Structures are given as C-alpha cells and as structure tokens.
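Schema walkthrough. Field components (list of strings):
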Amino acid sequence: MTEGRVWRLLFTLLKLAEMGAHRRTAKISTEYLARKLGMSQQTASRHLIELDDRGWISRTITPEGCLIKITDSGVTELKKLYSNLRLLMEAAYPPSVTLEGVVFMGLGEGAYYISKELYRKQFIEKLGFDPYPGTLNLKLTTDYDVKTRSELEAYPAVEIEGFKNENRTFGHVKCYPVIIENKVKGAVISALRSHYGASVIEVIAPVFLRKQLKLKDGHKVKVEVLTLP
Amino acid sequence: MTEGRVWRLLFTLLKLAEMGAHRRTAKISTEYLARKLGMSQQTASRHLIELDDRGWISRTITPEGCLIKITDSGVTELKKLYSNLRLLMEAAYPPSVTLEGVVFMGLGEGAYYISKELYRKQFIEKLGFDPYPGTLNLKLTTDYDVKTRSELEAYPAVEIEGFKNENRTFGHVKCYPVIIENKVKGAVISALRSHYGASVIEVIAPVFLRKQLKLKDGHKVKVEVLTLP
DNA sequence: ATTACTACTAAACGAGTAC
DNA sequence: TGTACTCGTTTAGTAGTAA
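Field assembly_structure (string):
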C-alpha cells in the first residue's frame, strides 16, 4: 500500500512535471521549486533528494540550480495516478457496490423458477454458472441498503429473457453478478414482478449457499455487486 | 498555494472516490478506510472529519459505519487534479520553456530586416505587435540553455514567410512568442540562415528592450518561451 | 459494532549555516 | 548565487480508551 510520504513526493513530482521536467531536462532551483510548492527551500531540496533516491527523477546539480528530468519510472508513477483518476472521472458507474442483508426463509418459489430449463440455459450461458436450484433471500435492514438496491436498477444488467409455455408466462429477469461474503461468485436476480418489495434481494449461485457458507436465518450476509466492464 | 496537508487529504478523497463515494453515498467504516489507506483507524477518522470540515464530503455517522458522499466541491478538487494531469499527459509540448542569456551588441542587422515592410506586416498580423526596429541579442552561456534552444526547433512556431525584391531574397523566419524578464511580450526569431550559431537568440518586442528594461551589455536576461495552444 | 477524544510518539518541516 | 547539512520546532500519526 502506498504510504503517506509517497503521496507528498508524488505531488512534488507533479509540480516538476508542470514545469516541463517530464519531457525535457528543466533547470529548477530548490528555491524556485520551494516557492511554487509553498514550502521552504530546505524541504524542496530534501524532496528532490528523495525523488532521486527513488529513481523518479535524475538530477544534475550546477551552480545555477538543478537540472531535473523526470525518469521513465517517475512518469510511470504519474501515469498510474492519471489512469486511476481517468477511470473514476469517466466511468459511468462505481466499481462496485456492497449490499448487506439478513438471511430469511423464503417461500421456496425460487427453486421452481430457477430450474425452469429455458431460464437455466440462459443462466449458464450469460452468467457462466449452472445455478443451484434455490435462492438465498436477504432482507435489507438499513435505509442505506434499500437505497443502494434501488440504484441498482439503473445499472447495466445481464438480461434473462422471458418465455411462455402451455400454462403461463415467465417474465424477463435482470441479473447482477455479485460476490457473496467475499467468497462465492453468484448473482442477484431481480424479476420485474417480485413477490417482495425493494427491501429484499434474491441471490443465486452455483452452490447451495446456506450450506457452503454455513448460513442460518438471521445471519448477516454481505454481497458485493460487480459492475460490468 | 496549496499546502502539504491538503494533498494528504486529497489522497484520502481519491480513495473514497475509488470506493464509489463520488457517485453515490457509500458506507465506509473508518476501520475499513484505514486498512485501504495503510493508516490507523484514528487517522482515517481524523481525515474524514477534516474532509467534512472542508466541505469535500458529507457524512452521516451510523452505528454500522459512516455514510459518505463526496460533495460537488470535493469532486471539483478531484477534477482539478485530473485536468492538471491530463494536460501534462496529453500535451505534446511542455507549457513553457525558459532561456537565459547575456546581452551583447549585435551587428545592427536586425533593424534592417525587421523594418522590411513585408516582414513587418506579417509580424503585426501573426504576432500581434509592431516590432521595434532592432533585435536584442542574447548569448546563451550554459549547455543547458543551448540544448533547450535547439529543442525549440521542434516546437510549433509562428511562421513568417520569406519574399523577394528586385535585389535579393529574404528568407523564411520562425518566431516563438516569449515573455522577457516576466514583463514584456515579444518573440524570439530564428532565421533559417543565421549569422550566429545555436548559442545566440535574437529577441524582438514592440518596445526598445534595452531602454525599457534598462539593459546593458553583459546583463543576464530571462526569456520564457510560450508554447502555442 | 462503531466514532473520535486525549496523550504520546514519529516524522516532516524550517531556521541557521557550511560549503 | 547555488545545495544540503544539523538541529530545534511543528505537525501528522498512533495507542488507549470513552461514548
């Protein structure tokens, strides 16, 4: 993990780049740098020494000031920061969203729907796993989680098409890939007509979650929703 | 000028954004944030308090952790950093380059060329000023300055077209807009066939620089070359 | 569980100054 | 002019702990 000191140096490196030192050797005195950074000449000098030690800049000291060039390694550091920020600023959705809910016993309907062959085929094809015939029901307890769950609707989802058979119609289903308890990959499914309100989520996975994660009614479970790339 | 403390906070703000707090309210406990940042829970807590004080985040404390949303003002800070970096990473040329040289008496030829009407008209049109009929000659003294000057050739320049009259040919001239001694706008001119080598620059300006800046032979003069947008 | 206070430690900084 | 050392001061960070 990047420690605090590094961040301070990265800032100094950024200023050096603003003076053109990432493209060419720039003549920058410690006194000048200090003024630009709002620090003392001594601190600027030390920062340059440390940047040099890290190999982020190369330095030649002359009587008129330092000749400074940011090295490839230094530019890489700035690029890392840049791409980090770009992803944040340009991404349409947050990288992941976490929901938490309490396990409760459902009506057992989930199993019926999931094992319908025309659904199952699509789960395998579009989610990449053959779902255990049953759903884990989680009751969202806090306002925060309910609000988050409703925001999910605006996210891009894996779309499972509905179908008809001789008796009835099976509706369209939206899936959001998730990781359950940081361990198991699965999906939250969201039927357009749900028996439950917005305060419940139904989770499917390739395994029997209650057994795999030793879950009992009332246990709190964390589900991390992955956004699609 | 942005002081050091702000940068440490901005780093924390960036991490919060990586957790999605710039788009939505995110539930982040101080303990969790601390682990992600490689700091103690207490420090994370203090950072959150300070970010809140600055108005960069809004916070609601619940028994399960803090509900954190980066405010518009906080997002603006991140955007500032982002656009700063983007300019650096994507710009083809450094924002400005500084040259330093020593005043010396030229051959007086400059005046002859500059006052040629077909040159003068172009200076007015393309540089935006009517040049004083004469050039300030600066001898570049250090290797650094000579090297920088030669790099200038690769920059986009204001191009002044050559012409012929009955007697002879007047060559093509490249100009680089500059600011002399942080005070006067002017340009460095670079004839393709120069009487001087790469270690001399000729500066023109709308005023008589020697008088305006009280320059005498041997004085050191700083010239900041502006890159074109 | 949390957050965040107080008291203390560690690190970053700046003044003075040598070179 | 420059850089960069030592050393005292300031500031940031952590541990313990209360709420």
